[in-house]
Amino acid sequence: MEVQMLAAGILVAMLGVAQPARGEPPTYPGGDRAVRATPPFGDALGDAWEMEEVASWRGTWLRRGSSRIFDAYWVHPTGERVRATLEIWLEGRSVTVVRRHPGGKYCRYDGIISPDWWSVEGRYTCTWERTPMAWRATIVRLEQSLPALLRE
Q: pLDDT: is 147 or 56 the higher one?
């Protein structure tokens, strides 16, 4: 454990990266959380999204390479699980996500990426629930993530 802590401390000191609380992006020298004209590392969609939506559903959306297709997984506190494929369209900071399920069912998520390009918030509707519901996500970029070994 001491070796892990020492290794993490050395890496953090070398990179000048302050490790954040879970779910928050790190702060780089110069305050990378400021309003930015362009997304970090030149990619607005990142590698994965960690999201929350109504009724305590939590999801992980994993991007396929550099495409706009994501494989998504949700878990509810009761243990129920859902999988779907997503396609994301981006225009400026506006995102539209289409979540497809078997039998022609789908959901549409609309949201706005934050001024610092690290999070998204919006509303969504589904074919089985037309009432707009809130959702939010944190955009994960592998370039900004330390390996799990060094985060513990």
A: 56
Note down the domain range covering 78: 45-151
* Residue 40 within a domain: no
Task: Provide the β-strand partners of residue 134.
Answer: 123
User: Under a CB-based contact definition with an 8 Å cutoff, are residues 70 and 152 in contact?
Assistant: no
Task: Report the candidate in 137, 78, 130, 74 with the shortest Cα–Cα distance to residue 107.
Answer: 130
Burial class (CB in 10 A: 0-12, 13-18, 19+), 141: middle
The pLDDT tens digits for 100-145 are: 988 999 999 999 999 999 999 999 999 999 999 999 999 999 877 7
Calculate the CA 50 to chain-centre distance: 4
Give the predicted TM-score (pTM) of the model. 0.73
Q: 119: domain CATH number? A: 2.40.128.120
Instruction: Give yes or no for a contact between 130 and 120, defined as CB atoms under 8 angstroms apart.
Output: no
Tokens of 133: 């519901």
